[in-house]
Amino acid sequence: MRNDSIRNIAIIAHVDHGKTTLVDAMLRQSGIFRANEELVERVLDSNDLERERGITILAKTTGVRYHGVKINIVDTPGHSDFGGEVERALKMVDGVLLLVDASEGPLPQTRYVLVKALEAKLPAIAVINKIDRPDARIQEVVNELYDLFIDLDATEDQLDFPILYTNARAGIAKDSLEDSSGNLRPLFEAIVKHIPAAPGDPAGTLQILVANLDYSDYLGRLAIARVFSGTLRLGDEVGIVKLDGSLQKTKITRLYSFEGLKRVDETVGKPGDILAIAGVEGINIGETVTSAETPNPLPRIQIDEPTIVMMFTINTSPFAGREGQYVTSRNLRERLERELLTNVSIRVEEAGSTEAFRVMGRGELQLAILIETMRREGYELMVGKPEILTRANNGELQEPLEMLVIDCPDLFLGVVIEKLGGRKGKMTKMVNHGSGRVRLEFDVPTRGLIGLRSEILTDTRGTAIMNSLFHGYIAWQGDIPTRPTGSLVADRAGKATAYAIWNLQERGEIFITPGTEVYEGMVVGENARAVDLDVNIVKEKKLTNMRASTADEAIRLVSPHILNLEQAIEFIRDNELVETTPQSIRLRKKVLQANKR
Ligand SMILES: Nc1nc2c(ncn2[C@@H]2O[C@H](COP(=O)(O)OP(=O)(O)OP(=O)(O)O)[C@@H](O)[C@H]2O)c(=O)[nH]1
Ligand SMILES: [Mg+2]
Fold first, then answer.
1. 20 to 30 Å CA-CA from 325: which of 3, 137, 282, 499?
2. 397 burial class (0-12, 13-18, 19+ CB within 10 angstroms)?
């Protein structure tokens, strides 16, 4: 039984290929906004970090109507660290729009999301986006997409996907390049035609899968859920099969559907509906809302394992508690427990004491976003260098492997290959598009990627584009050399002076500005040599040297290299930590006192 008035789709793609922009256009053209209503760009990227970074971090649901058909759309993040969001989104839908940038073509995350969609047996509509780009190479990209499907052992049926050509920014979709369409109509038509109508028997046993959580100040915790079978009426008593298998009986008293950016009150939920359920205490992702009498839970959501781990501890620096509101181990524990409820792709373990936790995730960016979010909420904490999670397989020690794609001007080919060689990377493919840029593919241990991005960007003067994808496990590859430099470490507390910085700046790069308060053991710069160097960065100029005022003007400071959170995390060594507070990001040695190091 299928409900022909509902289509559920997820939009999936590599990062920046235009998913959220396409959703904007779909929202605009579905007529849910008043003609004069101003819509901000990428309206679904609604949280602060998403707007600042211009990326989607959390999957979001929205709904539009096209000729009487309700189309629920789940916009997903394209960055590989947030792959867990994609896996979950795919549980709610009956098909996908697979977007590919008309110039960049399929990239690692295109492959990842397509693997997931094929595994879930979801039909795809291919959308070649950004056809307006002057460097678009549409036909080639279409061929590359077919190659990718074939490479992933797609069936005949799966290979028979429709292709649309879009300019998401202008809100135009075309069935063929000659098509003179000036709007998204061909896309809406294709969705209604090619994405299967939502299946499920309205008279069957109630089965609603909670696939996401959201939070509203007004409504509290919201479960975002998809009805697979049965009919839910407002006020019905239902059972919730919890993750531990137990049954919680409750009444559903508040139910909403998605219309554009709004949640609309609903009194019934039918198969195919994607709903928000409010007012249910403790409801979690992966749980099934079902009949209280004859419960029939849906399979649990399986998602990929984490590949990296970072130690999170309370702040023990001399400046602890100065800037943050939440500083105790209890604060930290509760916050991490709260994160586990919505962020299903991370894991947290206690690490030997109540003050330290091993936080596991899919990548540095995912964990950096968590830390950044916590800073903004008023937390102080310290984090250690990211480490990869190894595993034992039949007695063999294995480590995670990534497929890495680097796109750079051919002039930097040599340095890039050399750099990857040092990190145990094996080149698997090299394509020269003839445009002066080359695309290189490597298999490289995940370990080898830590800190790589900043080095490659420096080596290629900011011109390289780098993307990677978890690609299974390989035997442990032995030592990989880390950063070839040491740290400049403050040897006493005080305020950094321009004079001291001026004296030190020839030794390496300085991370702080004059006037910054430092403590003993704080890392204030990078030593050009391989060893750490204790330095006095608070040294005042002797008064006897102050004869001429012109001498002061001679102090020319190189502008400091202020590290952001991700750079700081990439920079630190095993014996160093990053201290984060709402106002500051400091680097420090684990052991602060110079004579104890
Ligand atoms: N020229 C051109 N630019 C586009 C088009 N569609 C999107 N863009 C631009 O591409 C950039 C990325 O767009 P987003 O919509 O944020 O991409 P996304 O796929 O949602 O990115 P993530 O969610 O972070 O994976 C933005 O600067 C858009 O304005 C298009 O059709 N043509
Ligand atoms: Mg997006």
1. 282
2. exposed
Q: Which of 24, 97, 101, 169 gets mutated to test ligand 1 (max ligand atoms within 8 A of its CB)?
A: 169
CA of 497 relative to ligand 2 center, distance in Å? 44
Instruction: Give the integer Cα–Cα distance in Å for 419 and 514.
Output: 35
Enumerate residues lining ligand 1, CB below 6 A: 13, 15-21, 42, 55-56, 77-79, 129-130, 132-133, 167-169
Among 16, 51, 110, name the best residue to mutate to test ligand 1's pocket (greatest count of ligand atoms within 8 A of Cβ).
16
Cα–Cα distance measured from residue 218 to residue 358, given in angstroms and rounded to the nearest whole number: 33
Nearest bound ligand to the CA of residue 49: 1
Determine the distance separating the centroid of ligand 1 and the alpha carbon of 508, expressed in angstroms.
Answer: 38
Residue 537: pLDDT above 90?
yes
pLDDT digit string (tens) for 136-182?
999 999 999 999 999 888 999 999 999 999 999 999 999 999 999 99
Nearest ligand by distance to the CA of 365: 1
Range list of β-strands (E), 13-82: 60-66, 69-75
CB atoms within 10 A of CB 426: 13
Residue 459's pLDDT band (cuts 50, 70, 90):
confident
Residues paired with residue 263 on neighbouring β-strands, in sequence order: 258
pLDDT greater than 50 at residue 548:
no
Neighbouring C-beta atoms of residue 159, cutoff 10 Å: 11
106 forms beta bridges with none
Question: pTM score, two decimals?
Answer: 0.87
Q: Which bin fits 218, alpha (ψ -120 to 50), beta or left (φ > 0)? A: alpha
d(CA 351, CA 336): 13
Convert the pLDDT of each residue in 8-65 to its tens digit: 999 999 999 999 999 999 999 987 766 666 778 888 898 889 999 999 999 999 999 9
Is pLDDT above 70 for 337?
Answer: yes
**CB-based contacts of 571, cutoff 8 Å, min separation 6:** 451, 483, 526, 563, 587
* Pocket probe mutation, ligand 1, options 15, 19, 21, 53, max atoms within 8 Å of Cβ: 21
Q: How far is the CA of 37 from the centre of ligand 1 (A)?
A: 22
Determine contact, residues 389/307, Cβ cutoff 8 Å.
yes
Question: Which atom of ligand 1 is least distant from the CA of 15?
Answer: 25
Q: Give which of 327, 421, 424, 345 is closest to 381, Cα–Cα.
A: 327
According to DSSP, the residues that pair with 327 across neighbouring strands are: none
C-alpha 436/C-alpha 282 separation (Å) is 56
Q: Which atom of ligand 1 is nearest to the CA of 56?
A: 23
Across 393-404, average pLDDT: 92
- Report the C-alpha gap between 441 and 404 in whole angstroms: 6
Q: What pLDDT does 544 receive?
A: 58
H helices within 460-506, ranges in order?
498-504
E-only strand ranges, 351-456: 356-361, 381-384, 387-388, 391-393, 396-409, 426-432, 437-445
Q: SS in 3 state form for 270-298?
A: CCCCEEEEECCCCCCCCCEEECCCCCCCC
